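Kindly review both lines to help learners:
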Amino acid sequence: MKNSIKGRKSKILKLFLCFLLLGVSYSFANNNNYSQLKTLSVNVNNKTLREVFQTIEKTSQFVFFYLDDAINLDRKVSIDSKDKKIDEILTELFEGTSCTYRISDRQVFISGKSAAVSAAQQQNARKITGRVTDTKGEPLIGVNVTVDGDTNGSITNMDGLFELRVSKKNAVLKFTYIGFKPSEVRINSSTNIYDVVLEEQVNELEETVIVGYGTQRKISNIGAQSSMKLEDIKTPSASLTTTLAGRLAGVVAVQRTGEPGKDAADIWIRGIATPNTATPLILVDGVERAFNDIDPEDIESLTTLKDASATAIYGQRGANGVILITTKRGEKGKVKINVKAGFDWNTPVKVPEYASGYDWARLANEARLGRYDSPIYTPEELEIIRSGLDTDLYPNIDWRDLMLKSGAPRYYANISFSGGSDNVRYYVSGQNV
């Protein structure tokens, strides 16, 4: 009995191993079955390599794997292939490049350009040299010099000199250095020597900002505050308060009504801090003024002080934050006259669409019938409303279109005079809205 049981177990084990080996061999045999049988039709004209990959992924089960920095995905290609396999399409796409690919079932692995350059490219490449200096003529050490669209690059030595080989005819050299503005130079066939001057880039942390007791560098300021530049304040808005909405961190502007002439918004800085009023303290050149009485054209800078360390100098008046506004000053020299005039057309962004009188009456009847009540209007009355036979008893009027305009104009003009001497300087402005 025991021998018969052992014999059955051995037979079952042998059958299990047989099926397992068959399954494994079948999986290996069909590992690349999809890529060998699937045919694609790709027709693109002057599209980037990235767009071609996306097109193939949408129309098939292939997935591409690559590094963005390893291959040039912005290279424009054109291909017209019908009923071809994936390897034939990729061979046509990468023809003339050093990119390689490997296909594993539905996965396509693409490797970038090889670091080694062919002997033919080395022979045809031009030797480009030059010197990089600052605006004072001092050489810059360690400037990155790269070729746009290529991995080829170099850095400047102790004397600011660089040297690299370029195979493209109209290549663009890019010069980047910390603390300086980047620069680009397009090479031509007339010369192989290029001297480049980089301009210093002013760090925003070195700029001065207005605080409660004067001015201070941004890098040395520890209080919570935000500043706006003059070009950010000059926006086509009827109110200066609405200009701040979404432009300064921690500042919320809420417009309570859309009534004409009441465009001012309520301003909160970091929420409501006091029970009676939550409006911040607004100082214009050190004097408290109403916010909407200020002409945006007269503003030089705007700073908001938000936390206790920044507003401590103002005591309890600064509990809801402080907004410091500095107006323009006159400059030494001849009289400068600036005139600005404009025209705006204000229209609603979105207005609700109302039902007509006939639709309203019909829906009112449906509502009554849904509650098992008698309808309000008879079929004859509905026909009278629809046809407009009796507009006195059954009017069908769009009151919004009748009483309101689709838009309203706004005219504004500003004129300012500035100038002065060593002793007296002045700035006078006027506005008409």
Observations:
- The chain has a mean pLDDT of 76.
- The first strand starts at residue 40 and ends at 48.
